[in-house]
Amino acid sequence: MQGYDTISDFELLDLLRSDDHAAFAELYERYKVVLYLHAKRMLSDQDETKDVIQEVFTQLWTKRADIVISTSVKAYLYTSIRNKVFNLLAHRKFEMNYLNSLQQVIDLGETSGEAQLREKQLIVMIEQEIEQLPQKMREVFELSRKHHLSHKEIAGKLNISDKTVKKQINNAIKILRLKINAILLLLPFL
């Protein structure tokens, strides 16, 4: 059989659908650099850019049996990168808005007694949710958020990689965000 580097993208996609790892590797090699440069222009953060590329190719592999591409594989991958970057930027904007509104509440100073009581209840509930995180994830999260250590400092202290620290913190935030949103919906009834 001829080398994978001479096969068209659509032929590689067909091979990929039949679980051909070499076809996946060839698609990755063909497009990783141009997709990286494309994403880097929009994000300017090397780690986030690498994460976006990894997510797109992971999604390509996991959804390989169901992917329908009507244009070109290259266009599909570029669109996937663009959408992941837009989602990431929207998430960043949401986080910034949340932090700004939180700062405004803090800046307002004293609130009514009822609001203070609710705030204390919320803090206790959040602390309880943090305690329910898996032990290692909780340790990483608390070193980051309570002790204000950098990813590098946490990695050195726990003898793990920076990437593991970042992933643990992101996972903790995802878990806590879901639980805190549920708590916030219920708080008026408590």
Automatic annotation (TrEMBL):
<dbReference type="InterPro" id="IPR013325">
    <property type="entry name" value="RNA_pol_sigma_r2"/>
</dbReference>
<feature type="domain" description="RNA polymerase sigma factor 70 region 4 type 2">
    <location>
        <begin position="125"/>
        <end position="174"/>
    </location>
</feature>
<dbReference type="InterPro" id="IPR014327">
    <property type="entry name" value="RNA_pol_sigma70_bacteroid"/>
</dbReference>
<keyword id="KW-0731">Sigma factor</keyword>
<protein>
    <submittedName>
        <fullName>RNA polymerase sigma-70 factor, ECF subfamily</fullName>
    </submittedName>
</protein>
<dbReference type="InterPro" id="IPR036388">
    <property type="entry name" value="WH-like_DNA-bd_sf"/>
</dbReference>
<dbReference type="InterPro" id="IPR014284">
    <property type="entry name" value="RNA_pol_sigma-70_dom"/>
</dbReference>
<comment type="similarity">
    <text>Belongs to the sigma-70 factor family. ECF subfamily.</text>
</comment>
<dbReference type="InterPro" id="IPR013249">
    <property type="entry name" value="RNA_pol_sigma70_r4_t2"/>
</dbReference>
<feature type="domain" description="RNA polymerase sigma-70 region 2">
    <location>
        <begin position="27"/>
        <end position="93"/>
    </location>
</feature>
<dbReference type="GO" id="GO:0006352">
    <property type="term" value="P:DNA-templated transcription initiation"/>
</dbReference>
<keyword id="KW-0805">Transcription regulation</keyword>
<dbReference type="GO" id="GO:0016987">
    <property type="term" value="F:sigma factor activity"/>
</dbReference>
<dbReference type="Pfam" id="PF08281">
    <property type="entry name" value="Sigma70_r4_2"/>
</dbReference>
<dbReference type="GO" id="GO:0003677">
    <property type="term" value="F:DNA binding"/>
</dbReference>
<dbReference type="InterPro" id="IPR039425">
    <property type="entry name" value="RNA_pol_sigma-70-like"/>
</dbReference>
<keyword id="KW-0804">Transcription</keyword>
<dbReference type="Pfam" id="PF04542">
    <property type="entry name" value="Sigma70_r2"/>
</dbReference>
<dbReference type="InterPro" id="IPR013324">
    <property type="entry name" value="RNA_pol_sigma_r3/r4-like"/>
</dbReference>
<dbReference type="InterPro" id="IPR007627">
    <property type="entry name" value="RNA_pol_sigma70_r2"/>
</dbReference>
